[in-house]
Specification:
It is built from 16 helices and 33 strands. With 599 residues, it is α/β, with parallel strands linked by helices. The protein has three domains: 2-55 and 78-233, Phosphoenolpyruvate Carboxykinase, domain 1, CATH 3.40.449; 237-304 and 395-598, Phosphoenolpyruvate Carboxykinase, domain 3 (Alpha-Beta Complex), CATH 3.90.228; 305-389, Phosphoenolpyruvate Carboxykinase, domain 2 (Beta Complex), CATH 2.170.8. Bound molecules: oxalic acid (OXD) and manganese (II) ion. Residues 238, 285 line the site of manganese (II) ion.
Length: 599
Amino acid sequence: MMKNGGIENMCNQMESFINEMQELLKPDKTYIMNGSQHEAENLVDIGMKSQFDDRLVLRELNTTKFPNSYYHRSNSNDVARTEHLTFVCTQDKNFAGCNNNWMNPVIATEKMINLFKGSMKGRTMYVIPFIMGVPGSQYSKTGVQVTDSIYVALSMRIMSRVGNEATTIIKNSACFFRGIHSVGDVNPNRRFIMHFPEKNLVMSFGSGYGGNALLGKKCYSLRIGSYMGLKENWLAEHMIIIGVQSPDGNIVYFLGAFPSACGKTNLALLEPIFKGYKIFTLGDDIAWLHIGADGKLYAINPETGFFGVAPGTSFKTNPIMMRTLTNNKFFPTLFTNTAINNTDNTPWWEGLSDIIPSNMTNWQGYNYDLHSCEPAAHPNSRFTVSIYNCPTLSQEYYNPNGVPISGIIFGGRRSDTIPLVYEATNWSNGVFLASILGSETTAAASGKVGCVRRDPMAMLPFCGYNMVNYFQHWLNIGKQLKNIPKIFMVNWFRKDEQGNFMWPGFRDNSRILKWMLDRINGKVDAIETEIGLLPIPNNIDTDGLNLKPGILHELLSINKEAWLKEILMIDEFYKTFNNKLPNELKLNLQTLKRKFQEK
Ligand code: OXD
Ligand code: MN
């Protein structure tokens, strides 16, 4: 039986997709989401009454401290993206590149159809029509995802524009993204996230985790998005978007790309340290970039929410996010795999407070032993919260044309070698620097801690095609721009010989943004060095900052030995592309080598 949450005359293509899915998945019921407030209340209600995998899907949290907020605990085998089970299934294997797992699309389809057959028996199929981007914008895109998870359906409502408005657009359009998702039995041996860029289709089975299951996010907006960008001359990027306002009222827009555990979300919601400056938030994860009619680079955030890592978030580290999380009115906020403080029924995670509450349930549902070495919240526990709650949300977030970008920031976590900040000499040099972006692994990710992992443009897990062609695409976009944004590299994480961070980070990072503004506005010069343009130390505003003498010079220094080692590592990394890299990048590397040899 099909229950329609709204629109009566649905488009034929959407209707036939739903019919096809009913045929394949055999749900007991079908519900087409309309996006209404009543629908959200209803879904929350059902979630609080239903069990999946022996757990309640949702539990209400303290209504005063965290209004309209719900707790979800996942299967302990399903707590993060599973890159080894994520595939790009293009006709040509080379097209997907060595940065992606590849499977023949015919074999992949057959495999997935077998998993999906009848997987929604006894369940409801939620049909989620969604828009990524502002409705009516030339840059927005539509899709339809089916899922058997209420948690996923509710999360999609937070992260994208779900409902009748999307259905109406889809009704009048020839093509839309199709996403097929079922949590199945959450068995990691039967878990696959298959992308079919040529068909504008993703099939995801066996996981309810955000990056695997909210198909509008990483799957569509980045992997399929980057493919569409290649075909249609734009870029889908793993980037924050912020506007930095100076005391004269002028706002300059920046993009920022950082691999995980580098403070990306903190930068997106930063409170500057200086009076008169303000940062406006437009996005914390994904940016779609287009060349405007004026030759400038414009950015939109296709999403409507934050799917943020909870541990480390606090009133000290990210007060704006804490206000976002406690300021909820319209959209339900979800907390996943945090611990629960039983004294007041609030979510808790490592770093939220200095004092660890004494009566807690850990993320797996057991009493938390205060003497345990294990964290109470999962290191990748998350909140899913509407961007409309964010007190620093920019008015320009709603601009269908996006915002013009003046600066692009790339950053990684590096205890040595990489200076606090430097600037690329031009677009091609910036693409080179972004292509060699590296970050040290932290305990939050599996594998060895402290090794430098290269993550070009922070897009390695998300580029839906061969990275070699992606670099060329970046270079080509630059050639079409009339107004080229400046490209900056940052490293907030340099350590001294005792292993202490040399830069305070957090709000003090606004000092570096201020220097970038000055560079963009042509107010200050920079020093030409082997690696790019470095600040004249006096041009970094350190007023009120208690840095020990010499530290800023150290943070901005270039150590020849360390860079020679770095160059060897870059050489090794570049070899993994089998000599297919664009010449421009190879030339940049040669120039870097030559400059150090001449030194
Ligand atoms: C994310 C990620 O969840 O980058 O945003 O993994
Ligand atoms: Mn991300």
